[in-house]
What we know:
By secondary structure, this protein is of the alpha+beta class. The chain has one domain: Beta-grasp domain (Ubiquitin-like (UB roll)).
Amino acid sequence: MNIRVRVVLLANFKEIVGKKEVIEEVNSNSKLRHILDRLAKKYGKDFKQIVDPKKGVISSEFLVSINGKNVRDPDVRLNNGDTLVITIAVGGG
């Protein structure tokens, strides 16, 4: 069984993809990591950099949320109808 996840893209991710959001259909036991890998294959390396390869978590350079809750664990399970938001972290001054 497949599930549908709404992916909202902000900042440079919106520019890379050419639209503000996409719908991804994935297997019902998919995790956040699967969506990020799929986006990297479709749209390029910027999506691949979201997960820090050394630490295995979402890099502090990026903000990723599922249904309004920030996440750092790329192995969190996704559910049908989830809304995933991906953007870059904004530094203050």
